[in-house]
Amino acid sequence: MHIKYVLYEGIYLFRLINVVLVEVLRKAKTLLSLRSCKNSMASNNLLVLLIFIGCDGSLLLDDNATFIGEKTAAANNNSVRGFNVVDDIKAKLEKACPGVVSCADILAIAARDSTVMLGGPSWEVKLGRRDSTTASRAAANNSLPAPTFNISRLLSSFAAQGLSLKDLVALSGSHTIGLARCTTFRPHIYNDSNIDASFAKALKRKCPKSGNDNVHQPLDFQTPTSFDNLYFHHLLKMKGLLRSDQELFNGTSADFLVKKYAADTQFFKQFAKSMIKMGKIKPLTGSSGQIRINCRKVN
Fold first, then answer.
1. Pairwise pLDDT comparison (246 vs 138), residue with the higher score
2. What does the DSSP 8-state code read for residue 13?
């Protein structure tokens, strides 16, 4: 296969001339995502999280004798799933074109394709990322915004990655898809006042003050398997599942954007722009890293 590398805005872009390779990836992703609604939601959560902490596929690495990886970081433990989806896609790609497409690029493409499949926007995915050879739970804990963050900490966390308030609100719209563990929304429903009382009461029946830690609830209770703008409607009604969700509409400068994105689906355009921007965060290119054969371990 002929592969052309193009330097574009600081990252290498693969031009995979063999269209069959792209078709294998799309067919694999389509098959796996449609197996169940839960698989689709898990995949979307996994992919957005991975790109945020770095475009190097480090989240996919299992723990080994050298490091404790990111799968058990606070924001990921028993929450981020869908690793088997990536495994299946990688296996099909390795069979069709071994050693060419990185796990990081698989995730970037699958993030886009799963969003489109669920009714969301599309965007151009720059390719050419390489995979990390290490991972760190401590680094993930320091990088990922926690569901208990207030707006100030959310803004600081995103700013550290070169992302703006507009990026924060638009990318939070990905919570139109996905599930959250009881442990992640318990502080909000029991300790915060900026939540609809009946909404909190219903959640408390499923998520008591202790126990049921691994009970999951959809981040968007109305259309949990469709990529739309109802997430923002819920925030306007004080029905954000996580504290970090409702902080986006809580009397701050973010309120304007929440109202704007709730008015129609123009948030799709900004979401696509922010995903492109986020996809350029600290990629490994050139001779850095490697192309993993198995996304769960280094070669």
1. 246
2. E
